[in-house]
Structure formats: structure tokens, C-alpha cells
Design goal:
The chain has 304 residues and is α+β, with helices and mostly antiparallel strands. The chain has 3 domains: 181 residues, Jelly Rolls, CATH 2.60.120; 49 residues; 37 residues. The chain has 5 helices and 10 strands, in the order βαββββββββαβααα. The strands form 2 sheets. It has a 5-stranded antiparallel β-sheet with strand order 1-3-8-5-6, with no helix packed on it. It has a 5-stranded mixed β-sheet with strand order 2-9-4-7-10. 20% of the residues are buried.
Length: 304
């Protein structure tokens, strides 16, 4: 018989464990805060069921104490409440920030993500790539509403949730289907995810490696041009560009990043390929040995 544990919400913001603050000083009632942090999304439309933030402005979510968070999500108004209406074409641009130590008088905020080049609505999901982050407050900076409706000057936020553990995988769900494990994993998203983002160092490493590849290609072109250019001034310009690229590579620690990339991705692939090649060699030798035996047996049968 499966063990049943007490079904406690895993949402770190629900149950009075966080407070909401709007940058323009608008008062948010206790019932509004409860609805925004609730596990179940109640009915919402263009007039009710959301917090309205005047653009440009921000919504701050302050936890009662710092918590380890590895997965968070929030819902931007999309006209798709429980009645499943026609999705809205309205999109929003925003920036997501966090701080380990929140102070109403002033905090140091870290930018986690911004979508200024890709406006979105609906559920916005964020996973920390390596490990949970110790966070005492979140800030959603709201910039723009893309539609020319009556609500064009504001951003409507329906729900904000944060969890220590992300949503269970399908395998975990099948394995634990007989158990009640409330209070551990985040419940599935009650709607359509429009934006899913992995937050962490991997993005910066990839950016660095791409930049290294670009710099290497440019250096090759400069080297080729250097041999063909005869004007002294143009040669000096090319030499200055080469020095600048070399400085960029050194300052961004390209060698370390490439080694990291090789060690984590390329090396395992090389090793796997080597094992496959060895397997094929043994298969080839065994096949050759079997063929030789067949020939020997055929010769013996002929002789007999």
C-alpha cells in the first residue's frame, strides 16, 4: 500500500507566505493577493481576476523569508480563463528580476530574463539550470502592452507561483501514480505555456562560445586581408582589429569555456563513438572468423 503524505501546497507564495507591492503605490487587498498566489486559477476576464500594473511599472513579490527556488511561473492575461475563450492577441514586454535580500528602501536586483524582443502572454515558466536559488523577492518590470485597447497602458498579471521543486516528469508521475505526494513537486501548469526559459550559466557559456567562433572567423579574414593590403594605414587598422579580438578572447576566458564545452559535450560523444568503432571491429573480426570456419568445414566436407 502506498504511503500517503499530507497534501500541503508546494507553492512558496501561497498561504500568506508572500506580499505584493505595485510601484505606483496602489493598494492590493488581501483577497487579491490570495487569488494571485493561489494554486488554482479562478475565473478572470478583462475586468477582474488580475493585478493591473501601470506601464512602465513593476510588481514586487516579497517572501516572508528567503526560500530556495528552482522553478517559478506567472500568468500574463490571455483571455483564456476557465471558460476557455478566444486567446487574446494582446502581448506584453517585461523583465524578471530577483534579490537574495529584499529591503523596501532599496535592494540590489539581478536580472534573470527579459522579453523586450519577443512580447508574450499566457504562462511564463522559468527553471534554474544548475540548482535552486536563494531568493527573498521577485520583481516583474512591466514595459509595454502591444494592443491599442482600453488596457493598453497597463500589464495584467493573473497569477505568480514559485516552487522548490519543478513539475514532475511523466516517468515520475507513472511511478508514483498510487501515492499522494502533495507539498513536494509543483502541480502541472493549468493552461498553455507560451514561454519556457532555462535560467543559468549555460546560456552565457553558449553565448561566449558563439562569440569565440565569430571572432575566430573574423580573425581569419583579417589575416587573409593583411597579406593582400599594401596601404600602411589600412594595415595598421587591421592590426588594431586583430589586437582587439585577441583582447576579447582573453578577457572572456575563451580557452576555459571551450574546454568546458568539450569536456561536457564533445568528449562523451567522442568516447561513445570510439566504443562503437571498437564494437564494429570485434564484430568484423568475429564475422571473418566465422567465415573462415565455414570455409574450413566446406573443405573438410568436400575431402570426405
Amino acid at each position: 500500500m502506498a504511503m500517503v503524505t499530507e497534501n500541503i501546497s508546494s507553492n512558496l507564495l501561497s498561504g500568506g507566505r508572500a506580499r505584493l507591492y505595485v510601484s505606483d503605490g496602489s493598494e492590493i487587498s488581501a483577497s487579491q493577493q490570495e487569488a494571485v498566489f493561489a494554486d488554482e486559477i479562478t475565473n478572470y476576464n478583462s475586468s477582474i481576476g488580475h493585478i493591473k500594473v501601470k506601464n512602465p511599472g513593476s510588481l514586487i513579490v516579497a517572501l516572508d523569508k528567503a526560500q530556495n527556488i528552482s522553478y517559478l511561473r506567472f500568468l500574463l492575461w490571455d483571455n483564456c480563463g476557465p471558460t476557455k475563450q478566444q486567446p487574446s492577441r494582446r502581448r506584453y514586454t517585461y523583465r524578471l528580476l530577483c534579490t537574495e535580500s529584499y529591503d523596501p528602501a532599496g535592494s540590489e536586483w539581478e536580472v534573470l530574463y527579459e522579453n523586450t524582443q519577443n512580447p508574450s502572454n499566457g504562462w511564463q515558466e522559468f527553471y534554474f539550470e544548475d540548482a535552486a536559488r536563494n531568493i527573498s523577492a521577485l520583481k516583474i518590470q512591466c514595459f509595454q502592452n502591444t494592443t491599442a485597447s482600453a488596457h493598453k497602458d497597463s500589464t495584467q498579471i493573473v497569477s505568480v507561483q514559485a516552487f522548490t521543486h519543478p513539475t514532475k516528469s511523466v516517468i515520475e508521475m507513472l511511478k508514483d501514480k498510487q501515492e499522494e505526494i502533495g507539498g513536494i513537486f509543483a502541480p502541472p501548469v493549468p493552461g498553455i505555456v507560451k514561454n519556457r526559459v532555462i535560467l543559468g550559466g549555460g546560456q552565457e557559456q553558449l553565448k561566449t562560445m558563439v562569440q569565440a567562433e565569430i571572432n575566430g572567423t573574423i580573425s581569419k579574414y583579417i589575416h587573409t586581408l593583411h597579406d593582400e593590403v599594401e596601404d600602411d594605414q589600412e594595415r595598421k587598422t587591421l592590426e588594431a582589429m586583430e589586437k582587439d579580438l585577441a583582447h576579447q578572447n582573453k578577457s572572456s576566458d575563451i580557452e576555459r569555456q571551450i574546454n568546458l564545452f568539450y569536456g561536457s559535450i564533445l568528449k562523451p560523444i567522442d568516447e561513445a563513438e570510439t566504443r562503437v568503432q571498437r564494437s564494429f571491429k570485434w564484430i568484423g573480426r568475429i564475422a571473418l572468423f566465422v567465415l573462415v570456419l565455414d570455409i574450413i568445414f566446406d573443405i573438410i566436407s568436400i575431402i570426405q
